[in-house]
Amino acid sequence: MTTPALTSSARAREQGRRALAAAQPAVFWLEDAARPPALPRLAADCTADLVVVGGGFCGLWTALRAVERDPGRQVVLLEAGHCGDQASGRNGGFAAASLTHGFGNGQARWPEELVLLDELGAANLRDIGETVSRHGIDCDWQRVGELTVATRPHEVDELTELSAALGRAGHRAVLLDRDGVRKELDSPSYLAGLLEPDATALVEPAHLAWGLREACLAAGVRIHEGTRVEGLDREGPVVAVRAGGHVVRAPHVALATNAFPSLLRRLRLMTVPVYDYVLMTEPLSAAQKAEIGWERRQGVGDASNCFHYYRLSRDDRILWGGYDAVYHYGSRIEPRLEQSGPTHELIAQHFFETFPQLEGLRFSHRWAGVIDTCTRFAAFFGTAHAGRVAYALGFTGLGVAATRFGADVMLDLLSGEETERTSLRMVRERPLPFPPEPFRAAGVNLTRRAMVSADARGGRRNLWLRALDRAGLGFDS
Ligand SMILES: Cc1cc2nc3c(=O)[nH]c(=O)nc-3n(C[C@H](O)[C@H](O)[C@H](O)COP(=O)(O)OP(=O)(O)OC[C@H]3O[C@@H](n4cnc5c(N)ncnc54)[C@H](O)[C@@H]3O)c2cc1C
After folding, report:
1. Whether residue 1 has pLDDT greater than 60
2. Residues 267-280: pLDDT tens digits?
3. Dihedral-angle region of residue 330 (phi above 0 means left; psi in -120 to 50 means alpha; beta otherwise)
4. Which of 86, 101, 197, 468 lies 20 to 30 angstroms, CA to CA, from 373?
5. In this structure, what are the phi and psi dihedrals at residue 171, rounded to the nearest 5 degrees?
6. Cα–Cα distance between 253 and 174 in angstroms, integer?
7. What SS3 string covers 91-149?
8. Ligand 1 centre from 88 Cα, in Å?
9. Which pTM value belongs to this model?
């Protein structure tokens, strides 16, 4: 965000640096006394009705929905590390009703089925809340809604248009002028806001992942952590899932491996792993809270192409993330990439440009996580090995809630039934792949630069972005 001519960028940069000085390079949500001990590795060959690979939200929902839908089903879940340690335990905790990475993306790609997609998304969000309460998962699930803020004049026009389109589609959306938005949350950089009370719930992501893991165990799912799956082999009517010298044989396998290299080679160009960076402040004092307001505690995002997202934690910290989605040449994923001096400093500067009244507030944690960006921004689905292996991939930074829908789609596909979900064009169609290197890195970086420049130039998209728009391609986080 570069607009705030209202505040001094140099001063904000300096404050950001100071505020970061003692921040721990660790994920706030995962550093918690409630973190459960690791479950044993796979130590023998076995059989199951369904093997789920990956223990993030997508894999955990798949395992849980499988036993909810068919209580007798024998399910084994294999997780390379600890369930919830990757994107699912380290995200912003915005559980969005949208299954299409936002209304605008849905409208552009699947206009004829957006009403149904939005109904399914709303039901999905309700069902997550219902599961949380049925299992007593202590994850601070709050239906507080979302506030999108405009910090540049052209974004005011965009929010006005979006508000009208949401209203026509029957969604509750309230357009706020400068005073109205600053009554919700006070920043001198705000020009307008759009309040969508039903769009989003907030959740503590690691607590949700751990709660789902516990619910799976209670329902009889066998979970092996520290168990990286190395390959899949077809053996007649079953698939052999190889991991650490052992094999699990099952007629059905669900792949929920997100941004990590897919076990299906054909999917390797379908997504790129992109790092999204996050800061957490120390808890705000009552006086600091009073400076900014935020009584309704909505999740907040700005309306830019390169957007920030932010929210309060249960103990009144501010989680501040986004803006700088970083791709590393060759689709590298390495723990050391989770700390980036330049990006953490840049977003710290943006924090103090947005909230200059919080001068002196410190960041306690800094981290990053990897998201599975695809060219249509919304998840895609499919099967392999003659329908015995299903996958859901490409949630692109909006998978906290959509992964539960993805889980049901995978189970529908494996069952062979045609359902309301599998009939959707959004489910039947797959996005275009990214090109191989070196074109992949060049294309992603060119697109990122063009998006930053469009934000700064009144939203005007250059030739490159317009060409991608025409082809229905893009890059987002
Ligand atoms: C910093 C950040 C902020 C985000 N903020 C939001 C947000 O506010 N709202 C939102 O909706 N989304 C957000 N997202 C995206 C969201 O977190 C993801 O879309 C979602 O968690 C994806 O869940 P998943 O289960 O597919 O992936 P993951 O949580 O990454 O789980 C995949 C799991 O598969 C395991 N795995 C991979 N390969 C293998 C293998 N071969 N064998 C065994 N296990 C394997 C991995 O170890 C991992 O645990 C954010 C993401 C990040 C990184």
Report:
1. no
2. 999 999 999 999 99
3. left
4. 197
5. -90, 145
6. 44
7. CCCEEECCCCCCHHHHHHHCHHHHHHHHHHHHHHHHHHHHHHHHCCCCCCCECCCEEEE
8. 4
9. 0.96
